[in-house]
Design goal:
Blueprint lengths: L1 H11 L18 E5 L2 E4 L4 E4 L2 H4 L8 H11 L13 H13 L4 E7 L2 H18 L7 E5 L8 H6 L3 H4 L10 E3 L22 H10 L3 E6 L3 E2 L5 E2 L2 H13 L3 E5 L23 E4 L11 E6 H5 L21 H16 L2 H19 L6 E7 L2 E6 L15 H11 L2 E2 L6 E4 L7 H18 L3
Parallel strand pairs: 3-15, 5-6, 5-7, 7-10, 10-11
Antiparallel strand pairs: 1-2, 2-3, 4-12, 8-9, 11-12, 13-14, 14-16
Helix pairs in contact: 3-11, 4-11, 12-14, 13-14
The structure holds pyridoxal-5'-phosphate (PLP).
Pyridoxal-5'-phosphate binds next to helix 5.
């Protein structure tokens, strides 16, 4: 049965972010059901979902409370056009989100995935400056190793060549500056105690080019796809300040780090800053449904508010904008945060992850660094601990460790040489043990230790 499902899968399906030839000797794992942190394939083998199914799941698979919220909503309304029409879940969600996001973000625009939320941010920022009489502000600035999604606008802002290089002729011309690189800090400093000296690159680029820059976009505190690179909150404070000075939109891409991932509800809180535009998705629906939000200040909103004939409106939409089921799930997600003391409880879990990593992984000769913020923990493997030289990407170290971990019943999904743990928040101590023990076994097997 598994074989025929896999054969049919490969006959018809093109999987995301994949070289399909890899599937020849490594066919897709067909999942039947999920419960808590575990996924079960059609043969009953279980996998601990240590990456929250690509960073989206918060409260486990097939969560009873969220299932119920969907049931309740689906019996009332599945979807409705969102132009001129509205519904309770979207209204409730917007009010609550405005109340719990950083000060000043008072308006909410809906779309249905992280990349689209970024596209909305780009278009808003660009159009804003066209309409307030600064039409030369047309470009964006972003740092190296950033990731903002795979649609063309979002891809233009991203700094990972692996995803964007071939498309360069299609992409927006973005100012790219060297971002923080704390593990290999060129200033010889530590991220916990530095003064974000590396901000000088951003500072210089903005001082030289601010006349043409509409927005600066950044993943606050953690650059996810770039390898779970954690950096100092001071960098964000400095960016906030210079954006104010030169009338540049600070665009916070909280698609991955929002909803408690970094130990605060939003990563911007670590720096105590408010962005001008903020993008949310992934955890917004606790891993259930595609939904995203782009929040902005009144100042931006007001620049679009005028008679129709001025054509200053924001004429952007998606078919499923403001989907009621997704919105109801997002409201229930916020209820769970309130009722179950999630952020507080995660603090203890994060500590346990740290202790187990220290116990199980630190003695591996290729252990470069363990970095952690909230429910994100990452081990960077290096070829040489002294020089911190990494493994050649062609060796596909992470991919091979991933395959081994699956045999041990854990879904890890390393980014290059970075093995990371980003489990659902409901993980318990025993499950943390399974997760990190499997990482140890898989890494040791790969290196024949
Ligand atoms: C995943 C991600 C996106 C893109 O979201 P999609 O829903 O995959 O389009 C954007 N920004 C960041 C930081 C992300 O991690």
């Amino acid at each position: 049965m598994v074989k025929s499902l896999q054969e049919k899968d490969l006959k018809y399906i093109w999987h995301p972010c994949s070289q399909m030839k890899d599937y020849e000797d490594f066919p897709p794992i067909v999942i039947e059901r999920g419960e808590g942190v575990f996924l079960y394939d059609v043969e009953g083998k279980r996998y601990l979902d240590a990456v929250s199914s690509w960073w989206v799941n918060l409260f486990g698979h097939s969560n009873k409370r969220i299932n119920k919220a969907i049931e309740n909503q689906i019996d009332k309304l599945e979807h409705v056009i969102f132009v001129n029409f509205s519904h309770r879940p979207a209204i409730e969600l917007s009010e609550r989100i405005v109340n719990i996001t950083p000060q000043g973000l008072n308006k909410v625009f809906f779309s249905d995935n992280g990349s689209s939320a970024i596209e909305v941010a780009i278009k808003l920022s660009f159009q804003y400056f066209q309409q307030i009489g600064k039409p030369k502000k047309t470009k964006f600035i972003a740092i190296t190793d950033s990731y903002h999604g795979d649609t063309l606008g979002a891809l233009s802002l991203g700094g990972i060549d692996l995803y964007s290089k071939i498309y360069k002729p299609l992409l927006l011309n973005t100012h790219r500056v060297q971002g923080p690189d704390c593990f290999r800090c060129k200033y010889g400093l530590e991220r916990e105690t530095c003064n974000a000296e590396c901000f000088e690159h951003m500072e210089r680029a903005i001082e030289e080019n601010h006349g043409e820059i509409a927005g600066a976009i950044i993943e606050p505190m953690v650059q996810g796809a770039g390898g779970m690179k954690i950096y100092s909150a001071i960098y964000l404070k400095k960016l906030r300040e210079i954006c104010h000075k030169y009338d540049i939109h600070f665009i916070a891409d909280e698609v991955a780090v929002g909803f408690g991932r970094t130990g605060k509800m939003y990563a911007c809180e670590h720096a105590g800053i408010s962005p001008d535009i903020m993008c949310l998705s992934k955890g917004l629906t606790a891993g259930y449904l595609p939904l995203s939000l782009t929040l902005m200040t009144d100042k931006i909103y007001d620049a679009f508010y005028d008679e129709y004939q001025t054509l200053k409106g924001f004429l952007h939409s998606h078919s499923y904008t403001g989907n009621p089921i997704g919105s109801a799930v997002a409201c229930e997600t916020l209820n769970i945060f309130e009722d179950e003391n999630i952020i507080e409880n995660n603090r203890r879990k994060s500590q346990i992850i740290k202790e187990k990593v220290t116990e199980y992984l630190m003695d591996i000769p290729y252990f470069g660094e363990f970095r952690q913020l909230g429910m994100i923990g990452a081990v960077e493997l290096v070829k040489d601990k002294k020089t911190k030289e990494g493994f050649d990407w062609k060796e596909r170290v992470g991919y091979k460790i991933y395959k081994k971990a699956l045999k041990h019943g854990v879904l890890l999904r390393p980014l290059g040489n970075v093995v990371y743990f980003m489990p659902p928040y409901i993980i318990n101590e025993e499950e943390i043990d399974i997760m990190i023990d499997a990482a140890r076994k898989s890494i040791k097997e790969y290196f024949c230790l």
